[in-house]
Amino acid sequence: MGGKHVSKQQTDLRKWTGGQTYDLLCMDDKCLSPSKYEMLTRNTSQDFGLLIHNLSESDLDCQYTCSCGFSDFTKNLSVEPIHVMSLPANETITNGKNINNGKMEIEIMLEKVNPFPHCSAVFKGQFIIETTVTVIKWYIYYNDVKVIYTFPIDDVGCEGRLQILCTLVYRNITIFDEHIDMCQGHNDRLGVRCWTNEKKTQVERINVNQMQLLTPSEKYQQEKETSAMTEV
């Protein structure tokens, strides 16, 4: 975050104030939380800036002020949502896995993701179908979405490894990865399910909320990946 060019005498203090509680952050190259904030100065210029480490949603939509003597400049820090990537905040939550009328349906909730994910199902190593993704709740920089996957057992078989994969810009995440055995419930036509725990594959754990700004090169990569996803 850049500061405004201000005239500085040797006795003037340079400081940054801001954040959610609008507190003093840095003064004359020293910051109260050096792991979070860093004052940037240039050798041949009286300009100075503020570097925010581990940028998160709580740092955005807040005012930041750079001051030097009696001069100051205030700016609200915000970004376009398209320039933010946010991975799911919590481990994926499976709302339902059942078999009815010869079809299997899986519902998985993904919290706080951005951009809108594109998800596909792979059964026994073969692509089956693109899943349905629905937005449940909108936020400023991310969404809560529900991934719904339904397929007829007769078409693909009733036992094997099932994976559901989602793409967010250039990151691929696995939200479901299990060996399933639905043959017993399918043959009995009772609408029950049978999961073979002994063969269950470890599901990738997504337990961090990683929010990051995309660099220009990543934005270019996003455009390429988005175009590719549109063609699929």
Q: Please report which band the strand proportion falls in: under 5%, 5-15%, 15-25%, 25-35%, 35-45% or over 45%.
A: over 45%
| Gross geometry | rod-shaped
Q: SSE string, helix = H, strand = E? A: EEEEEEEEEEEEEEHEEHEH
Q: Catalogue the unreliable spans.
A: 5-10, 189-209, 226-232
**Alpha-beta classification:** mainly beta
Largest sheet: 5 strands, antiparallel
Number of strands: 17
Radius of gyration: 25 Å
End-to-end C-alpha gap: 38 Å
SS element count, helices: 3
Q: Residue share in helices? A: 10-25%
Lateral arrangement of strands in the main beta sheet = 3-2-1-6-7
Q: Average the pLDDT over all residues and give the rounded result.
A: 76
How do you describe this structure in short?
This protein is 11% helix and 47% strand. It is built from 3 helices and 17 strands.
Describe the structure in your own words.
The protein is mainly beta. The protein is built from three helices and 17 strands. Strands 3-2-1-6-7 form a five-stranded antiparallel beta sheet, with no helix packed on it. A four-stranded antiparallel beta sheet has the order 9-10-14-13. A four-stranded antiparallel beta sheet has the order 12-11-15-16, with no helix packed on it. Strand 4 and strand 5 form a beta hairpin. The protein is rod-shaped.
